[in-house]
Every structure is written in structure tokens, then in C-alpha cells.
Amino acid sequence: MPNEISRRIALLTGGTGGLAQATAERFAAEGITVVIADLDAQRAGEAADALPGDGHRGIGMDVADEASVRAVFEQVESELGPVAVLGCFAGRLSTRSAPGRVLLTELTLDEWEGVNAVNARGTFLCIREMARRRATVPVPHGRIITIASLAGQQGGLAAGAAYSASKGAVLALTKVCARELASQGITVNAIAPGPIDTQMLRSTVPVERAGEKYEHLQGIPLARVGLPGEIAAAVAWLASVDAGFVTGATIDVNGGLYMR
């Protein structure tokens, strides 16, 4: 018989990315109904169909667009029920196709706006919509997990100013929302990944070193990059009943690259 936590609905933005997919698989294996939201609706549907268990959905969503965010929540909640777990995975390293860090002097306003639109504004819009809906239709063990970054804590070794600043904004937003939503019984916490084996990480490696996963490996005490499943494990714990007294926290998953 499924326990109380397993009957919940989880909405994961940026759902076809490596970290979100690993989390979706973890949630589905635990019996949670997963909604994968992504700009690419077809890929989202295919990813949802591949999950274990029944009832999962894939849906097209632009987190930077207020109307799109509202419409997705409306569709999910009218067809499946209230969202109990929100995972804000949608993220953008750069608007440029070329790999590598964008230097401050080369950073255009369009690049700044494009990155912040997804990472900062998108996270805000999704959390706000969740908060508004849970104010009228509460759920037990409400959870919001944001995905920040080591770059937002220390300025970024491989990421530029736009990405680092946007993830710093996510960290601050997480704390504000944790305070405001505590009265609704919703916890809000951030995961701050270090270098994790994803396509985004590989895109930070300069062309001349193509094939490497990360160019600062020597600085990681554990001497390796992390795995998407290790982020999923941290998210799964924050989403659990056991993490009910944890809110406003930033969970570092970085192999010791940043200690505080």
C-alpha cells in the first residue's frame, strides 16, 4: 500500500534535462505521479512515457512566460489534482551556441536578459503560481525545491556573470519564499550543485579541450564530477516527510569544491 508521500503529484520544470530526468525517475520509482514540463512538449511526453508506473504526464511549458506557467498549473491541477512538489529545474547557462564562459566585457544585454528570464524569473513565476494555488487548496507536506548552483555562491569558475547572478537570485528567492510559505506548511529549499555530469557542464569546456567533462577537476576534493542521480537523491529527501523541519536551506552537492 503506497504511503502518504507517494500519492502526491510532482511538477518538474526543465523536465527533460539530466537532473530533472534523474529526479523524475526517482520520484516515479517511489510511486509519485510525475509531470514533466519542458519547452519541448514532444520530448516531455516521451520522457514521461518512459517512467515506471502509470499516470505520468509530459507537457509543454515556457517558465519565462507568465501565461504559460499559469496554463500548465491549471491543466495539471484540473486533470490530476493539486501539485504537492514543485521542482524548479529549468535553467539556461547561456543564450550562445558556442561553449565556454562568456566574459563580462563580452556580455550583451540580450544575453543577460535571456539567461535571467529562465533561471530567475522562471523560478519566481513557478513558485508564485504554486503559492497562490496552495493558499486556496492546501496539500499535506507541500515542497518546493529550487536548483541554484555553486556558481551563485562563489561567482562561477566555468559560468559567466549572467548565469552566476541568476543563480544567486534563486538562492535569495528561496529564503524569502521559505519565510512566506511556512505558514502554509510548505517548505522551500535549494540544491546548489557543483559540477555534475550533464550536457550543460560539458558545454563549459573550451573547444580545444572538447571531450573533457570539466576543466577544474583538480580542485574537487573527491576528484570527480557528480552524477545526476546524486542530485535526485538530495531532491527526493527534501521532498520527503522526513525533511519537514528543513526550510530555507541550501544543500551543497559539490564534491567538496565549496565548503562553508
Q: So, CATH architecture?
A: 3-Layer(aba) Sandwich
CATH topology: Rossmann fold
Which radius of gyration do the C-alpha atoms yield? 17 Å
* CATH class category: Alpha Beta
Query: Globular, elongated, flat, extended or rod-shaped: what is the shape?
Result: globular
* Spatial strand order of the main sheet: 3-2-1-4-5-6-7
Structural class of the helix and strand makeup?
Answer: alpha/beta
Strand residue content: 5-15%
Total number of beta strands: 7
- Compute the average pLDDT: 91
Largest β-sheet summary: 7 strands, parallel
Counting DSSP H or I runs of 4 or more residues, the number of helices is: 8
Low-pLDDT segments, ≥5 res: 1-6
* Percent in helix: 40-55%
The SSE string, one letter per element, is EHEHEHEHEHHEHHE
Number of structural domains? 1
Structure keywords:
alpha/beta, 8 helices, Rossmann fold
Can you give a write-up of this model?
With 260 residues, the protein is an alpha/beta fold. It has one domain: NAD(P)-binding Rossmann-like Domain (Rossmann fold). 40% of the residues lie in helices and 14% in strands. It is built from eight helices and seven strands; from the N terminus they run βαβαβαβαβααβααβ. A seven-stranded parallel beta sheet has the order 3-2-1-4-5-6-7, sandwiched between helices. Helix 1 crosses helix 8. The protein is globular, with a radius of gyration of 17 Å.
List the topology elements.
Elements: E1 9-13, H1 18-29, E2 33-38, H2 41-49, E3 57-60, H3 66-79, E4 85-88, H4 109-136, E5 142-147, H5 151-154, H6 161-181, E6 186-193, H7 199-202, H8 228-239, E7 250-253
Parallel strand pairs: 1-2, 1-4, 2-3, 4-5, 5-6, 6-7
Helix pairs in contact: 1-8, 3-4, 4-6
